[in-house]
């Protein structure tokens, strides 16, 4: 658990997670919050137009680099063998828990903090 927490830590702009993703072979499901943080940082910190009134292509390149990186993980297909037992379990209506019960279980695990 410690290794996983260290990997997904937001410390250093997700430095450990970026390194892990760079070295993994797709398919993988990256943490999109990291990319959304990057996009928000670019959007808020970089103007759309230069001082001369021209489109800021540097900003557009940064955005396209992030989108390209996300798409890299979407291009590789997952090879998942059909497991009838898993399908049967997921479709078993006897295991469905109603919304109120789920909410109560949620409160037991993570109680609401007083406002």
From TrEMBL:
Family annotation (SUPFAM superfamilies) = Ras GEF (SSF48366)
Which GO biological process categories is it annotated with?
Ras protein signal transduction
**What Pfam families does the entry give?**
RasGEF
Q: A single Gene Ontology molecular function, please?
A: guanyl-nucleotide exchange factor activity
Where does it sit, as one GO cellular component term? plasma membrane
The species this protein belongs to is: Gulo gulo (Wolverine)
**Residue span(s) of domain Ras-GEF:** 1-112
Annotated keywords: Guanine-nucleotide releasing factor
This chain belongs to the protein called: Ras-GEF domain-containing protein
Entry superkingdom: Eukaryota
Q: Which PANTHER family match?
A: GUANINE NUCLEOTIDE EXCHANGE FACTOR, RAS-SPECIFIC GUANINE NUCLEOTIDE-RELEASING FACTOR 2
* Entries under Gene3D superfamilies matching the protein: Ras guanine-nucleotide exchange factors catalytic domain
- Which InterPro entries does this one have? Ras-like_GEF (IPR008937), Ras_G-nucl-exch_fac_CS (IPR019804), Ras_GEF_dom_sf (IPR023578), RASGEF_cat_dom (IPR001895), RASGEF_cat_dom_sf (IPR036964)
């Amino acid at each position: 658990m410690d290794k996983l927490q260290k990997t997904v830590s937001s410390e250093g702009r997700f430095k450990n997670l970026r390194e892990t993703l760079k070295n993994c072979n797709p398919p993988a499901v990256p943490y999109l919050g990291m990319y959304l943080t990057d996009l928000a940082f670019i959007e808020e910190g970089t103007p759309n137009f230069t001082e001369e009134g021209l489109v800021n292509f540097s900003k557009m390149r940064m955005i396209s680099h992030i989108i390209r990186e996300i798409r890299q993980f979407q291009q590789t297909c997952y090879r998942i063998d059909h497991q009838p037992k898993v399908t049967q379990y997921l479709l078993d209506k006897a295991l469905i828990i109603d919304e109120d019960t789920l909410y109560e279980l949620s409160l037991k695990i993570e109680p609401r903090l007083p406002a």
